[in-house]
Design brief:
Blueprint: E1 2-11, E2 17-24, H1 32-48, E3 55-62, E4 65-70, H2 72-81, E5 88-91
Parallel strand pairs: 2-3
Antiparallel strand pairs: 1-2, 1-5, 3-4
């Protein structure tokens, strides 16, 4: 399965930099536990591709609305700023 994702570097609130990944994916069940496992697997694959990932999230449509699941600070940021454009893809 091919998964699109955005790998972005943004200035953090503390003045440093944060590298994050947002994956276009959701577990088939949609449960919190399964989404957590999927996010961990995708994050490990991105890191295995030599990308630095400090925080990560899943992005998916649910009930006609865009939903984010993952690191709370990243989910908060994405909820305010919106979905970034996809920059990479990986096979999961």
């Amino acid at each position: 399965m091919k998964v699109n994702f955005a790998h972005i570097r943004e200035r953090a609130q503390n003045g440093g930099w944060i590298n994050f990944a947002v994956f276009d994916a959701r577990s088939s069940s949609g449960s919190r536990d399964d989404n957590s496992r999927l996010l961990a697997q995708l994050t490990a694959k991105a890191r295995g591709a030599n990308l630095r990932v400090d925080q990560a999230a899943l992005a998916f449509m649910s009930g006609g609305r865009l939903q984010f699941f993952g690191s709370p600070p990243l989910v908060d940021f994405l909820s305010r700023s919106g979905l970034p454009g996809w920059t990479h893809s990986l096979n999961a």
